[in-house]
Amino acid sequence: MNDTEQLIKDALGQLAERTPHPGPTLNALRRKRKRQRNNIFLIATAGMAAVVVLIFAGVIASDRYAPPNANDAAAALTPGGTGSLKYQPHWLPDGFAEALRAAHDGSTARVWVPADASPEAPHADGPRIQLASGQSYEGGTSQWQDTTVRGLKARVQVNGGTAVVEWKAQDTLFVQVQDVGDPRETAMRVADSVRADSDTNFQAPFTWKGKSADEFSGSSPSDWRAKATVAEIEVGVTSRTPNYSGAPTTPVTARGKQGVVVDGRVVAVQEGSLWITAISYGATKPVDELVAAVNAVEIASNFDTGWIRKK
Amino acid sequence: MAEQVTPLLRYATVLTCDPHLAQDVVQEVLLRAQQKWDRIGSVDLPNAYVKRMVTNEYLSWRRRRAAKDVALCMTTLESVTPPVADKTHHYDEREAMLQRIAKLPRKQRAAVVLRYYENYEDSEIAQMLGCAEGTVRSHISRALATLRLDHTPEPAGVGLRLGEGLS
After folding, report:
1. Closest Cα partner for A130 from B53, B61, B63?
2. Which end of chain A is more exposed for a tag (fewer CB within 10 A), N or C?
3. Is A14 within 8 Å of B144 when comparing Cβ atoms?
């Protein structure tokens, strides 16, 4: 082993000494397990919880609340970022509908799930089909096998119920199929149907500090959420009333309105029919920083949600 | 449970170069593992399987953006566990090397961690990363070339001569 390799070993050993205590991770796991057990109960009480949140937010109690209008500086609408998603599959299994679009640094991703799947389906286990461009597939544990996609050199791997086909056209592309019939056959058929498409765009519903939202998903055109993450803060805009029942909440002023701080790590405020949130991602950020993040969100004046859950 | 979580956290910390991201990755993986434990518990080496899940989670596109934004911020590392005071030249070299490792492309970094921290063979790394052994060797070779290129140690005795000049 030469000096460089020894130094690498020493450096990694030193990094390992900074491993965090397992306590916070174990506590978070316990909390989430408990939350999962309570899911059914939470669904049943969602309506009531929404009312509680509305009361906390002061939406009902405050006489000052009014929906945003065109003259309200705080609600000034600006154009969101738009970019081409570049590629479109022309075949998908029956019943699949688009549920997520993402664009970041030249990479794009689109996800289709069964039309009646839950809002979380694009990120969850279960049937899903993803088309990504501008990036290689970085996962999987199986060996790649050579194949072709419309005459182009390609490779495929199958790992349990998941198959991935990767090939290089103008960009590197991959199709990932999870928990759908014969995943390899489905992935190959979807990949064979992919064509360049300049008409399908990613329209970000908001910008934040000059950065467009980079992920947009939903379960219907009227039930969606978009998010952007920078430096451990995830900023989101959603049409869905968040459910914070059971979590400790305190009032806070954001965007000139009364919002809530949830569990010390989420700030949420309602603006018109939308909710704007900032979540501390990783280390807990000061509430002031989360409020500033919420204040910096600029909602786009015109964005399309008609693609959500459409084949 | 803590005995099982700590090695995973340690591995994730070295892999991500970020203790906060490591906590996040391990937490998400363990939640998923619990949901699928019937299946995972039946494989030959469930712990290795979970470690592979951590690797995949780190390499997945969903994590790419977040990790890119926070990878190895030394102030972040030090806010969690401040490094023990160590004024030796070797300590500085290790810190500098850590910074360089953190800038490696993710697959190269993962290959380096598996080779030099986990002491895995090429075949084991290939299995973990889902690629061919030749690809593993290529990742490590490129990583070493980058790390060597950046590794320009001070000429021997420079510090001593400065010290002598000041005294």
Report:
1. B61
2. N
3. no
Containing domain of residue A187, as a range? 83-202
In this structure, the answer to whether residues A113 and A87 fall within a common structural domain is yes
A264 lies in some domain:
yes
Amino acid at site B125: I
Angle at which helices B106-116 and B122-129 cross, to 10° = 140
Which residues numbered 74-113 in B keep a CB inside 8 Å of some CB on A? Answer: 76-77, 79-81, 83, 90, 93-95, 97-98, 101, 106-107, 112-113
Is the confidence at residue B83, as pLDDT, over 70? no
CB proximity B137 to A under 8 Å: no
Question: Could you tell me if B136 lies within 8 Å of chain A, comparing CB atoms?
Answer: no
Considering only CA atoms, which of B85, B84, B134, B136 is closest in space to residue B110?
Answer: B136
Q: Are residues A217 and A198 in the same domain?
A: no
B9 contacts chain A (CB < 8 A): yes
Tokens at B55, concatenated: 């690797």
How many CA atoms lie less than 13 Å away from A186 in the CB half-sphere? 22
Q: Where are the domains of chain B?
A: 1-82, 84-154
The DSSP code for B95 is H
Give the DSSP letter of residue A300: B
Domain at B84-154, CATH class: mainly alpha
B5 touches chain A (CB under 8 A): yes
What's the complex ipTM? 0.76
Same domain, yes or no: A190 and A215 = no
Indicate the average pLDDT of chain A: 80
- Contacts for A195 with CB less than 8 Å, ≥ 6 apart: A87, A88, A90
Number of domains chain A is built from: 2
Confidence of residue B47 (pLDDT cuts 50, 70, 90): confident
Same domain, A112 and A222: no
Summarised one tens digit per residue, pLDDT across range A84-106 is 788 899 999 999 999 999 988 78
Best A8, A110, A142, A280 member to test B by mutation, with max B CBs in 10 Å, is A8
* Separation between Cα atoms, residue B14 and residue B61, nearest integer Å: 19
DSSP code, position A121: G
